[in-house]
Specification:
15 helices, mainly alpha, about 325 residues, single chain, about 75% helix
């Protein structure tokens, strides 16, 4: 467990460091254009007709438009319908998720904390129906709503051409930004350590208690009365995904890293999909339900941003 946390943290720090060049390009926007940067090799590969199906599946999550426009998809639909369907679905999900990821990246943290709570609340009933409560999520949302009017400082605006710094100064500014990002990330990790996220653990205790009760009844020959109803394994599986989303939302709301929103949304998608398919057996309908949830998330974040801008201007 400790090693896993260190690996995740190291990966996050590498992501921050990898943004160094992007920071310099933001400060001097003509750097990229002046160097004649071509499309990434992966984008070209995603559009190439000779790219194998397995590789197209990998590229679909980052370059969905190129994959969907690839003429090889037509041939694949006839030769391997299952692979075609898998790639098509991955690209469709990416096209739905990437715009939301871009909006999240442009949104201030107070708004994202409220957004995380609202998203997790959508699947909270799937968690509550097996006997657990979501009071912690309700309290976190109330706190996020109370603190939301104060918007955190945004990144500096792009400089005028005449004010561009020298390349050495650009590197110094970029390094300073990376150092600030690392410091912010470490502070977020410290905040997360103080948060008591108990949705998953509470569900685990409930499942353990149910298993012990079941074993006790099996050993007791005198148990003539009807045993109390227990949640099915399917309900527990759905509730576990919802619990993970709730715990991620609690961490974000408490000032933890907003990158947890991505894992929270994955957990929400899993909960929605499993709940629908377990109730109806309709896989296509379950996928549509996930797409509807993604559409709601985009619309809701747009609405939160608009309300926040209106309250600040007023």
């Amino acid at each position: 467990m400790g090693r896993n946390k260190k690996t995740k943290r190291g990966g996050r720090l590498r992501q921050i460091a990898a943004g160094l060049c992007a920071t310099a390009a933001t400060i001097i926007p003509t750097v990229a254009s002046a160097s004649g940067v071509e499309p990434p090799p992966q984008a070209t590969e995603a559009a190439r007709r000779t790219t194998p199906a397995a590789r197209l599946l990998e590229l679909a999550s980052e370059y969905p438009d190129q994959v969907l426009a690839n003429r090889a998809m037509r041939r694949l639909r006839a030769e391997d319908p299952d692979a075609h369907q898998e790639i098509l679905l991955a690209a469709r999900f990416a096209r739905a998720e990437l715009p939301l990821a871009r909006i999240v990246a442009r949104t201030d943290k107070p708004t994202l904390r409220l957004f995380a709570c609202d998203c997790a609340a959508r699947v909270a009933p799937l968690y509550e129906r097996i006997g657990c409560d979501t009071k912690a999520l309700e309290s976190a949302r109330a706190a996020a709503l109370a603190t939301r009017p104060g918007r955190e400082p945004s990144t500096p605006a792009t400089m005028d051409v005449g004010a561009w710094p020298s390349p050495t100064t650009v590197i110094d500014m970029a390094l300073a930004k990376v150092e600030r990002d690392v410091a912010v990330f470490e502070m977020e990790v410290e905040r997360e350590a103080t948060v008591d996220t108990g949705a998953v653990s509470a569900l685990g205790r409930l499942a353990f208690a149910a298993a012990e009760a079941r074993a006790s009844r099996a050993e007791s020959a005198a148990a003539a009365e009807a045993p109390p109803a227990e949640p099915s394994r399917r309900m527990v599986a759905v509730a576990m995904a919802a619990a993970q989303a709730i715990d991620d939302a609690l961490l974000v709301a408490a000032g933890g890293t907003v990158t947890r929103i991505a894992t929270m949304r994955e957990a929400i998608a899993e909960a929605v999909y499993l709940d629908h398919i377990f109730r109806t057996g309709d896989a296509a309908g379950a996928i549509d339900a996930v797409f509807r949830e993604l559409a709601w998330q985009r619309a809701h974040l747009h609405a939160l941003r608009a309300r926040g801008d209106a309250s600040r201007s007023g």
